[in-house]
Hints:
This protein is an alpha+beta fold. It contains 13 helices and eight strands.
Amino acid sequence: MTLFEGMPTSVALPQMATSFPQRRLGRSPRLSLLITPGSHRFEPWIRACAVRASIMLQEVGVAADVAQRFTDEARVVSETPAWALRTLSPELWAEHEVKIIEEGLVPPDLMYWIESWKPVERPMFLTIEKVMVLRSVGVFSDVPEEVLPDLAGYLEEIEVGADERVYEKGATGRTMYIIADGRVRVHDEDRTFTELQAGELFGELTTLDPEPHSASVTALDDTRLLGLDRDALYELMSAHPTVLRGLIHILCGRLRDKGRRN
Length: 262
């Protein structure tokens, strides 16, 4: 009942400890427990997040555990250590690089990704980052986390420069776009209907109904988009009706806004 009484954490934890004693661990040992498969049954998404957190928190003590996850059977996990060690801790990457590559700890199909890194450029999104973008979009907020990594595999990463058109009014589209980073303007020539930013989406109407776009979309800043093809969207809506409900909610909101403007 302690969980439901709304008392402060400082009071609730000692009370629960008498019935549910927990072994106290520091941050590094706890992350190590989450990262390393063993007696626990953590899902790949949990392991991937723990790998990412360990490097972002500069927990050097779990570096050996992180490096071992190159052989994880789940891609969302196995590609995360490469990104973490290479982009957030170059020193750790240099320390492990020879072993990682020479001993084949990185599966061959991930080598292209590692070799594509450029120090002065933004690396392309990993699965874990695509999932985080999806979680920020209301349409996908109720989709189970174990499903989102599979969905992320359908997303196409698109770079659009400032003042560059994403698509023109009148063009027929079959892709829904999610803004991962940057801003866009929805407009008809000089008339601006709205501006959208990270975590918002557009193009969903023509994805559902293949009609010409009713407006143009132009990037206001250097922008990164994640594109979802119509076939993948239909498959997702069929398996997870919450996505369809989320799209209907967004479309209804935009119709109401249009009615108010008119």
